[in-house]
Design a protein that fits this description.
By secondary structure, this protein is mainly alpha-helical. It has helices at about 20-35, 55-65, 90-100, 110-125, 140-150, 195-205, 225-235, 265-270, 275-280, 295-300, 315-330, 335-345, 350-355, 360-370, 380-385, 395-400, 405-420, 425-435, 435-440, 445-455, 465-470, 475-485; strands at about 5-10, 40, 105-110, 155, 165-170, 175-180, 185-190, 210-215, 240-245, 245, 315. Helix 16 runs antiparallel to helix 20. It binds one RNA strand through helix 4, strand 6, helix 6, strand 11 and helix 11.
RNA sequence: GGCCCGUUCGUCUAGCGGCUAGGACAUCGCCCUCUCAAGGCGGAGAUCACGGGUUCGAAUCCCGUACGGGCUACCA
C-alpha cells in the first residue's frame, strides 16, 4: 500500500513569515518535490485575536518570493479544502461527534480559574500538575443532563488507562517514547466550541491525508497527544519529523532584537531569495561533507530528512551575507540588471526605460558592481556617481586625497591628456592615464586615487578606467575640472 | 516538580567502532592590484560538554551528571 507523499506547512497568521517557519516550509517543500508528492499550505488561523488577513497575505507573498509553490491551499487548487481552519469548524464538530460516539471524550465543567488554582497548589507541592480527571468520574447520565442544561464545559480526551507507552519513529530523531501516564486528559474543544491546536491539527492532517508531518521540535511533546487523537478518531497516523529550532546569536529565540527575523525583512535588506533559501536549507541540513552553495533544484534532488541535524542552530548573518554575495556573482549581467533596477528606481537614479535605451551600457556596468557587493542595497552607493550630477564629494576623501600634494598636477595632467582622447573606452582610457604617473614622476596610486575621488566622489568605487569610460568624456572632464579647485598642486 | 529533546573549532556542519577529526563562514598572514571587492595560497582555531562503563579499539554503543531547550494552557 504505497500512497503518495503529502506534506503540509501550516503557519499561523499571527505575524509575518519567520525565519524558522521559512525553513520548515523549505524542508516540507523540498521533501514533497523530491518524492513527487504534494505540498499543502494550510492556514492555522484558529486564534482570531492574533490572526489577520494581512499576515496571511504577507506569508503567501514571502513563500512565493522564496520560490516555494504549493499544490493545494490558499490561491491554489485542491480537493481537501477549505485550507483555512476558520472555515473548517463543521469538520471539527463532526470529529467531536464521532469521538463522543466512540466514548473517547467527556465534558469537563471545571472552570478555568479553579483549574489554575489547583495547578498552582499542585506545583508548589511539587506534585503532578496535570488535570486530575475529576469530571471523568461523573456518571454519563449526570454529565449528559448538565450538557443538555447548557452548563459551560470543555471536551477532554480520555487518555486510555491501559495505553502504555506512546511510541513513534521520528524521521530525524529516531525512536521516541512517551509514557501515557504522563499525559493528562487535555482539552480538545473549548467552552466557546472552538477546537484547540492539538485537535484541529489532527483533524486537518487526517482529512488532508497528510503522510509526513514535518514541523518544529516545539511540537515534539505534542506528538504523543496528537497520536492519541488520531487513534481515538480511528485515523492513520502519519510519519513525523521534528526540526530543531533556530536561535539568535545569543542562543536565545530568534527575534527582532537579533536583526531581521522575518523573510521579507531580509528581502528589504537586499538579500536574494535564492541565497536565503540556500542558507536556510543549510541551517540544519547538509548535502554532503563539503557542498555549501547550491540552488533550489539541487536541494530538491538531494533533500532527505535523514540528513537533517538534531541540534539547534544559531542564525549567522555573516555567512548569509557571504552566501548572498556568492549568489549575486552567479547572476548573469542581464539578471543582475533586473535585480538591481528596483533599488536604483527607489532612489530615483534611473528607470526601466533608461535601461532599455542603454542596454549595452548597463551590461558593462553590471559585472563591475556585482563583483563587489554582498547585498543588493549596496548598488545604490556603488553606482550613484554615474547617475547624479553634480556629485557630492566625500569630505574625508577630499582632505585625504585631493588636498594631498601632487593631486592638482595629476588632475591637470589627466584633463590635458583625456581631452585629446578620441576612443573613450576603458582600455584606451587606461592606456592614456597610465602615462600620467610616469610623466609626473608620481606614484600611480596617488594619481589614480586623485582621479578616482574627483570622478566618483569617493575613495572606493568600481574600477577606475571602466568607471570613467561609463561616465563618458564630457562628464569626466567636467568633474576633473570641478575637483581642481580644491587640489593641492 | 513531571515527561521529552539536544551537546564536534567562535558559528553552520561532516562523521554513523579504527580518520593526522574533513569542509564552509568569520578571523589572521601572504599573493594579485588604480581603490574596494573578488580570486589564489597558507596559518591559527575542536582534550568531540563532563564522568563512568562496553570493546583489542570509542566523537561514534550503554548508563549517569551538568548545561541548554521544549511540552506540561480553554496559545499555536
Amino acid at each position: 500500500m504505497t500512497h503518495d507523499v503529502r506534506v503540509r506547512f501550516a503557519p499561523s497568521p499571527t505575524g509575518h513569515l519567520h525565519i524558522g517557519g521559512a525553513r520548515t516550509a523549505i524542508y516540507n517543500w523540498a521533501f514533497a518535490r523530491r518524492h513527487g508528492g504534494t505540498f499543502v499550505l494550510r492556514i492555522d488561523d484558529t486564534d482570531p485575536e492574533r490572526s489577520t488577513e494581512e499576515n496571511t497575505a504577507a506569508i503567501l507573498r514571502a513563500l512565493r518570493w522564496l520560490g516555494l509553490d504549493w499544490d493545494e491551499g490558499p490561491e491554489a487548487a485542491g480537493d481537501y479544502g477549505p485550507y483555512f481552519q476558520t472555515q473548517r469548524f463543521d469538520r471539527y464538530a463532526a470529529a467531536l461527534q464521532s469521538l463522543k460516539d466512540a466514548d473517547a471524550v467527556y465534558p469537563c465543567f471545571c472552570s478555568a480559574e479553579k483549574l489554575a488554582e489547583r495547578r498552582e497548589t499542585a506545583r508548589s507541592a511539587g506534585g503532578y500538575v496535570g488535570y486530575d480527571r475529576s469530571c471523568r468520574a461523573i456518571p454519563a447520565a449526570d454529565s449528559a443532563a448538565r450538557v443538555a442544561a447548557g452548563e459551560p464545559r470543555v471536551w477532554r480526551v480520555k487518555v486510555p488507562e491501559d495505553r502504555g507507552d506512546i511510541t513513534f519513529m521520528d524521521a530525524i530523531r529516531g525512536s521516541m517514547s512517551f509514557p501515557s501516564a504522563s499525559m493528562d486528559d487535555f482539552v480538545l474543544v473549548r467552552t466557546d466550541g472552538t477546537p484547540t491546536y492539538n485537535f484541529a491539527t489532527v483533524v486537518d492532517d487526517a482529512d488532508m491525508a497528510i503522510t509526513h508531518v514535518v514541523r518544529g521540535d516545539d511540537h515534539l511533546s505534542n506528538t504523543p497527544r496528537q497520536i492519541l487523537v488520531f487513534e481515538a478518531l480511528g485515523e492513520t497516523i502519519p510519519a513525523f519529523a521534528h526540526l530543531s529550532m533556530i536561535w539568535g546569536a545569543d542562543g536565545k529565540r530568534l527575534s527582532k532584537r537579533h536583526g531581521a527575523a522575518s523573510v521579507e525583512a531580509y528581502r528589504d535588506e537586499g538579500y536574494l531569495p535564492e541565497a536565503l533559501l540556500n542558507y536556510l536549507a543549510l541551517l540544519g541540513w547538509s548535502l554532503d561533507d563539503k557542498t555549501t552553495v547550491f540552488d533550489a533544484s539541487t536541494l530538491v534532488e538531494n533533500f532527505s530528512l535523514e540528513r537533517v541535524s538534531k541540534n539547534p542552530a544559531i542564525f549567522d548573518v555573516d555567512k548569509l551575507e557571504w552566501l548572498n554575495g556568492v549568489h549575486i556573482r552567479t547572476l548573469s549581467p542581464s539578471e543582475f540588471i533586473e535585480r538591481m533596477l528596483p533599488w536604483l528606481e527607489k532612489e530615483g537614479l534611473t528607470d526601466a526605460a533608461d535601461v532599455e535605451a542603454r542596454r549595452a551600457w548597463f551590461e558593462e556596468l553590471a559585472p563591475l558592481v556585482s563583483e563587489r557587493i554582498k547585498r543588493m542595497d549596496e548598488v545604490v552607493d556603488m553606482v550613484a556617481f554615474l547617475f547624479k550630477d553634480p556629485i557630492i564629494m566625500d569630505e574625508s576623501a577630499r582632505e585625504k586625497v585631493i588636498m594631498k600634494e601632487g593631486a592638482g598636477r595629476s588632475l591637470d595632467a589627466a584633463v590635458g591628456i583625456l581631452t585629446h582622447l578620441e576612443t573613450f573606452d576603458a582600455a584606451s582610457v587606461e592606456a592614456t592615464l597610465r602615462a600620467v604617473p610616469e610623466q609626473l614622476r608620481l606614484k600611480p596610486k596617488l594619481v589614480f586615487q586623485a582621479v578616482r575621488v574627483a570622478v566618483t566622489g569617493s575613495t572606493v568605487s568600481p574600477p577606475l578606467f571602466e568607471s570613467i569610460a561609463l561616465l563618458g568624456k564630457a562628464r569626466t572632464l567636467a568633474r576633473l575640472h570641478d575637483a581642481h579647485i580644491w587640489a593641492t598642486p
